[in-house]
Amino acid sequence: MATYTLIKVNGRQQARAFLDYPKALYRGDAAYVHPLDSDVESIFDSQRNRLLQEGGEAVRFLLQDEEGGLVGRVAAFVNPRTAHLGGQPTGGMGFFECAPQQEAAFKLLDVCRQWLEVRGMEAMDGPVNFGGRERWWGLLVDGFTQPSYGMSYALPYYKGFFEAYGFRPYFNQYSYLRPVSMTGVADSILARAAHAEGNPRYTFRHTNRRAMPRFAEDFRSVYNRAWAAHPEVEPMTAAQAEAEVEALRPIVDHRLILFAYYDGEPVGFFLQVPDVNEVIRRIGGGRLTAAKKLRFWYLLRVKKVCRRIVGIAFGIVPEHRGHGVESAMAMAFAKTALGSGFPYRDIDLTWVGDFNPVMMRFQQQLGGVVHKTHTTYRFLFDREKPFERCRRIA
Question: pTM (2 decimals)?
Fold first, then answer.
């Protein structure tokens, strides 16, 4: 048996090694895009991640082999907003990367389990993010092509590690790809859109730079009402909504953000951003030096190299579902996309969990085709306890 040494990340040198490890692991993989250091660091920074200010905990580990070389990394965390919303106290693990050595992978998963057990957890989900589900959520199990911004990438053998350890699929996540035009849209979508558009009480409009504070509050209002029925989603606070919107400000294109209103009240949103991974790939990811920042801005705003849009979130409040609002929003955006000067060709629609069959069907009717599948796994510490998959949304 190999000898491994676990190192708890504590200090700049170890944090640097945690950020850099994937570069060597994915060397030669043309699809891999190394994330920006700031995006990863923000997850573990108490000044930028409010979960750490609300009593949440996070830890990172590195794994060395007997020769002192790094063979893996992982993080574990307790989200105070969601840990006690399910059938048992559940923590999370993520940012998992490992050499093709199952024994090493099990060491990393063991330390996450042990750390979570000490904190009263009875299960762990993974690999997930210590924060919102729109970023780094789930293990890529199919579609090993260049990831869109915020989506996790993985090596194909990771799936075997997780399942051999005893994780079971909690839910599958499907990412749908479709052209920005109305090509392939089902007639039923067009009919439902016409119905909503014919109701003068509904209005559909894009946000703008001056309306960013209003955008944050409208987003929060719809999000909380749209997802309140899901047992594992905590309501969004005003401060959290403002932080989410502020984080998008450097890359936002207001043509990609659309809201639906009923008598002036927000009832739906379609939140998208340019796939800046097309920019990040060109600048090499990692630390954003002054030179890289300038090149990032030039490629994004001047050269407009992004040809793909990434769906971040989509929501309709329950009382307005089934009235064609989602279809009308999709068609309103399609009209924008057909306008002159629109540089994007494809939309990587926000992932949909298999617990939401209605939204899966809607994505398909829009002409979306599954091009990536991620899986969120769950591991119950009590191996005798019956396993239950994520509850479906009616």
Answer: 0.91
Q: What is the pLDDT of residue 74?
A: 98
CB atoms within 10 A of CB 314: 22
Total count of domains within the chain: 2
Which tokens sit at 313? Answer: 């979130």
pLDDT score, position 208: 84
- Asked if residue 391 is part of any domain, the answer here is no
Q: For residues 100 and 189, state if they share a domain.
A: no
- Establish how many alpha carbons lie within 13 A of residue 29's alpha carbon, considering only the half-sphere containing its beta carbon: 18
Tokens of 325: 């609002």
Note down the domain range covering 132: 5-173+375-380
**φ and ψ at 234, to 5 degrees?**
-85, 140
Q: Tell me how far apart the alpha carbons of residues 34 and 377 are, in angstroms, rounded to a whole number.
A: 24
Question: How many Cβ atoms from other residues are within 10 Å of residue 253's Cβ?
Answer: 19
DSSP-derived secondary structure for 361-374: HHHHHTT-EEEEEE
Q: Is the same domain home to 149 and 105?
A: yes
Q: Is residue 339 part of a domain?
A: yes
Q: According to the model, what pLDDT value does residue 78 have? A: 98
DSSP annotation string for 225-287: HHHTTSTT-PPPPHHHHHHHHHHHTTT--GGGEEEEEETTEEEEEEEEEE-THHHHHHHTSBS
| CA torsion through residues 220, 223, 228, 232, sign | negative
Q: Is 388 within a domain?
A: no
The owner of tokens 């509050």 is 217
Other beta carbons less than 10 A from residue 369's beta carbon:
12
Residue ranges, the chain, pLDDT below 70: 228-232, 394
Predicted confidence at residue 295, as pLDDT, reads 97
Same domain, 149 and 247: no
Backbone angles phi, psi at 221, to 5 degrees: -60, -50
Does 360 map to a domain? no
Token reading at 201: 């009480």
